[in-house]
Amino acid sequence: MSVVVVTGGASGIGRALAAALVARGDTVAISDLDGDRVAEVAEALTEHGPGKAYAAVLDVADAEAVADHYQSVKADHGRLDLVFNNAGIAVGGLAEELTLDHWNRALDVNLRGVVHGVHAAYPIMLEQGYGHIANTASLAGLVPMPMGIPYTASKFAVVGLSLALRAEAAGRGVKVSVICPGFVDTPLLTTGNPGLPQTEMSKNIRTFAKQAQPRLYSAEALAKDVLHGIRRNKALIVAPASGRAAWRAARLSPGGAVRAARIAVARYRRQVE
Ligand code: NAD
């Protein structure tokens, strides 16, 4: 039975991860910006058991609040085995449509949110001599994804941060993995640019996602893949299979990946103009 933190756990991938962890008997601290929803999720998961879920309101963009949260989980449960720095937002639109607020929000939540989680969890795990940090990036952290470049930039940064930290943490008892899903059918695909000006892309992410990946993956299937990858201490957990194929193609031909992205941009411009 592990003590686990899941940020952004009130919805989608975070909720599915928390459900799978509670179902295997873990103690899970689920946090989210949405206090009502995270409380409901924790209550429902604990009712099913056999593990337990605790809810906390947390904005991952707030470094101090993240540090306090991770410290209090360690203090309450005696240890911190596994953390999922998972909270994230979708930001969509062509570069010329996006303001600095779009850029800053994507970086504050998707990148700094992970930085804050790592900065809070890593010293605790070093002191314990064990632990596993799992950061959620995206396939858009491995393959250039246009029409949402702040998102892509934040996710490439999370991949780099995670792989480099994995190298530093190796031999100190701390494991680090990075999760790179293709499109997963969650509310993220219908809540783009939260609190920010909307674009055709942000209003229709789900439609465009289906053009790129006709079969959206389910959060539950992804959670299974992720826990399997964590058990095997994989550096990169890429799913579904179509995502692994796109990643392989981009490694074989980085120029080809940019050409594929150009085709997607041209199709997007035709559809929205
Ligand atoms: P989701 O919208 O269903 O869930 C994200 C949760 O994060 C929400 O409950 C939201 O309230 C919370 N959140 C947002 N900002 C927050 C903040 N500042 N602090 C704390 N919580 C916050 O989305 P999801 O699809 O489950 O996404 C989870 C992660 O997976 C994200 O990092 C996302 O970028 C990544 N991802 C998603 C997909 C996809 O297609 N859905 C693909 C690749 C990667």
From TrEMBL:
Keyword Oxidoreductase included in the entry's annotation = yes
Alphabetized, the UniProt keywords read: Oxidoreductase
InterPro entries in UniProt: NAD(P)-bd_dom_sf, Sc_DH/Rdtase_CS, SDR_fam
In which domain of life is the source organism classified?
Bacteria
Q: Does the keyword Acetylation apply?
A: no
* Any single Pfam family the record assigns to this protein: adh_short
Sequence similarity: Belongs to the short-chain dehydrogenases/reductases (SDR) family.
> What is the protein's name according to its record?
SDR family oxidoreductase
Q: Which organism is it from?
A: Actinomadura alba
